[in-house]
Amino acid sequence: MDSSTLCPCCKRILKKAPQKKTKCPHCGDSLYIKYRPGEDASKKRLVGSKEAAEIEQDWHRMSEIDQQIRLERQLKDAVESRHPRMIALAKVAIARHFKSDQVTELEREHSRLSIEEYSDTSFVAYLEVNAKEPRCCAMCKALVGRRFNVETALNECVFPLEGCLSDRCFAWVSPVFQHEI
Ligand SMILES: [Zn+2]
Ligand SMILES: [Zn+2]
Fold this sequence. Notes:
Elements: E1 22-23, E2 30-34, E3 45-48, H1 49-81, H2 84-97, H3 103-116, E4 124-131, H4 138-141, E5 147-148, H5 150-156, E6 171-177
Antiparallel strand pairs: 1-2, 2-3, 4-5, 4-6
Helix pairs in contact: 1-2, 2-3
The protein binds zinc ion (2 copies).
One zinc ion binds near residues 139, 140, 165, 166 and 169.
């Protein structure tokens, strides 16, 4: 007998091999159609709730590993490019991924380097603060639309700001070029 017609839990006969998530009419366990990472999708089979949870965990671990490989590659590329802001950005991504307590510090480093990128160009008229409202706190919101030169921006616009009232504020400076004004 095809094992797909047996409940993987109680081993009793299911009249019809399930094609999607269902419940065993005998033992009441939830039944899923799943396959493990590394297996061919054609290996999909009927599993009980316990094995389904294990398989889900495997998939989760797999995507964690994928994500870590992607972050490492991003950092490696940035280091090879010798671009300080790209290196800082890659470090921010890694710190965020591992929920490091260095995140804020690294974000500020990236913010500082972004501002400094405009210091040696005569094309930039000024830097203007932008933010993703309405999530921003009052303190960050108060800066939106204000204009700074590079030097003052390095004092006042290194985000996230010291004393920012939310950890969700997302603000940055963008250049306004001479020819745009
Ligand atoms: Zn059953
Ligand atoms: Zn804020």
